[in-house]
Design a protein that fits this description.
single chain; alpha/beta; Rossmann fold; eight-stranded mixed sheet; 11 helices; 8 strands
Length: 267
């Protein structure tokens, strides 16, 4: 199996991520996050671990021409997609390649910091959170979301059991780490945030077809595992997956429950 880490994985799948995962999962989650964040015209917003930029792109019209939106990600491959998408939609967003634990911005540079589903991939979460606090104005706010449960991941992990060794499943699960709600709260407080509120949100991922859902697995989280299977085993797993997805059919779409912790933190 490839030893490719999350950064390399996300660089390789940026196009498929934007085309499949963003409409199905990350755009609706970003809309939910931004409704809660209630951005105001003129605010300066930083999107940390922005990926292909859906949060930043949705934030830009909300703060308007008097505001500022900056997206930062460690992975240049994801940023290339983000830049292309913003340009295609005529959006004014600044894109920066950088490490969340060493943000390339001055103290108190932003009114709002956002981070959707990125914190769990950071080896030193508290260092990243301290940096988010540093770049916030004294009365600023940070909004973060992390997965608590994803049915799409659980489904694939169940399907894999009959095809690969248990340690392979464990390695796949390690690529999608989750943070317990109390750990998220503790990390935020340890990073110096004074006001912290963590709430569990129920979401639904909606794939336009089961073929799109399966296609993403061929390039994403499951890609290296599927490549290692024999042709017959791979075909059998894909057939089983398509059959299992019928249990999630909702009209013309495949609807899969998700849960995420959303945290508000103030310095």
């Amino acid at each position: 199996m490839s030893a490719e880490g999350p950064a390399g994985l996300f660089a390789r799948i940026g196009e498929a991520y934007e085309r499949i995962q963003v409409p199905a999962i990350f755009a609706p989650a970003a809309q939910d996050l931004l409704r809660t964040a209630a951005l105001q015209p003129g605010e300066r917003v930083l999107d940390v671990a922005c990926g292909t930029g859906i949060v930043a792109r949705l934030a830009a019209p909300q703060v308007g021409p008097s505001g500022r939106v900056v997206g930062l990600d460690l992975n240049e491959g994801m940023l290339a997609v983000a830049r292309a998408q913003a340009e295609a939609h005529g959006l004014s967003v600044e894109w920066h390649q950088g490490d969340a634990t060493h943000l390339p911005f001055s103290d108190a540079a932003f009114d709002v910091v956002l981070c959707q589903q990125g914190l769990q991939f950071m080896p030193d979460r508290r260092a990243a959170l301290r940096e988010m606090r540093r770049v916030l104005v004294p009365r600023g706010r940070a909004w973060l979301s992390v997965w608590q449960y994803r049915e799409d991941h659980e489904l694939w992990d169940r399907l894999l059991v009959g095809y690969v060794a248990p340690e392979v499943v464990s390695r796949i699960q390690a690529r999608s780490p989750r943070i317990a709600g109390e750990d998220l709260e503790n990390d935020l407080r340890a990073a110096g945030f004074g006001l912290v509120d963590v709430a569990l949100r129920h979401l639904t991922a909606r794939y336009a077809s089961h073929d799109l859902f399966v296609e993403y697995q061929l390039t994403g989280r499951m890609a290296s595992v599927l490549d290692d299977l024999t042709e017959s085993a791979r075909a059998a797993l894909m057939a089983e997956a398509r059959g299992a997805l019928e249990a999630y059919r909702d009209g013309d779409v495949i609807a899969m429950p998700q849960r995420a912790y959303v945290a508000l933190a103030r310095p």
